[in-house]
Every structure is written in structure tokens, then in C-alpha cells.
Amino acid sequence: MNITQIQDLIKFVAKSGVSEVEIEQKDFKITIKTHEPAGKRGNEVIQVAMPVQQPVAAVAPAPAPAPAAAPAAPAAPAAPAAEPKGNLVEIKSPMIGTFYRSSSPDKPPFVEVGASIKKGDTVCIIEAMKLFNEIESEVSGTIVKVLVNDSTPIEYDQPLFLVEPA
User: Fold this and answer.
1) What 3 state SS string does the chain have?
2) Can you give the pLDDT at residue 33?
């Protein structure tokens, strides 16, 4: 199953009102759960487990848990490290898709490092299912860091920007 098929499935689950869908095939398993009624954006929890092909299955499970545990450990120290620098706030992705800093390649980015933003200002676009979704800031302040490169695939709840609240 490729990323487009997964995005189609997520869209279907969101529209259908189903609270959980689980699909298991020979080489991977995907579970999509919603915690609130359909129609509220950004409430999907997606778990994708993609075991390596059968011949190397004995070798792959050992490395797979290590990377999963490694990002969790650095993420915890990173948050406290950011707090003393002015209690930085993360603007996170409400969906999976492709991150774009501007509305088109020939246009300037919505925000740059050092830019002042207000609650409701568009900070980026996320393309999902050939739909371009403008992502608005939920906080007023100054952009301290852009955490994602332009035209990069992103995950649900992935931090996109660090903002020093005003």
C-alpha cells in the first residue's frame, strides 16, 4: 500500500464516521482510529506497521524498535530545553500530507524566521489528497524556527514551526 492509498483510506474514514479501521496484508498492517466524531479535523490517530519482507524478518524487528524509541527519548529533552528560551510553542501539522511554505514555487513563503504572526495567520499549506489546506497559526508571536523543509512529506501532529508567543 502506497502513501496515496493510505491518504485515500484516511479521507474515507474521516467522511464515513467510522471510529476505527484496521487493514492487515501480508507485508504490513495499518490501523486508523478517530477519538471524536467525524468532521472534526486533526483527530485521527494513525498507526502504520510495515514489517520488512519475509526473508529478512528476523533481522528487521530488532532495528525497528530502536528507531521508534530513539526519537521519543530526544523529544522529551528537547521540549524542556526549549522552555527556558522563552517557552516556545510548536505549530503542529493537523494532517499528513506534503508541506509547502508558499502558495506556489514563484511566490514568497507565508512566514520566515523572525516574522511576527497573529492567531489565524496562514503559516503554510499542506497538500493532502490533491487538496491544498491552508494551515493557520493558533498562537500570536514570532517565528523562531522552521522545522520542515519545503515540499517534504509530513506526519499528523509533526511540529512545523517554533514560535515565541507574544
Assistant:
1) CCHHHHHHHHHHHHHHCCCEEEEEECCEEEEEEECCCCCCCCCEEEEEECCCCHHHCCCCCCCCHHHHHHHHHHHHHHHHHHHHHCCCEEEECCCCEEEECCCCCCCCCCCCCCCEECCCCEEEEEEECCEEEEEECCCCEEEEEECCCCCEEECCCCEEEEEEEC
2) 75
Residue extents of the structural domains in the chain:
3-56, 87-165
Q: Are 94 and 124 in contact (CB under 8 A)?
A: no
Positions of the chain with pLDDT lower than 70, given as ranges: 1, 34-86
CA-to-CA distance for 164 and 71, rounded, in angstroms?
A: 23
Q: Who's near 158: CB < 8 A, 6+ residues apart?
A: 92, 93, 148
Residues 6+ apart with CB under 8 A from 55: none
Torsion over CA: 67, 96, 159, 44 (sign): negative
CATH architecture of 87-165: Beta Barrel (2.40)
Task: Name the percent of the chain lying above pLDDT 70.
Answer: 67
Distance CA 67, CA 18 (A): 31
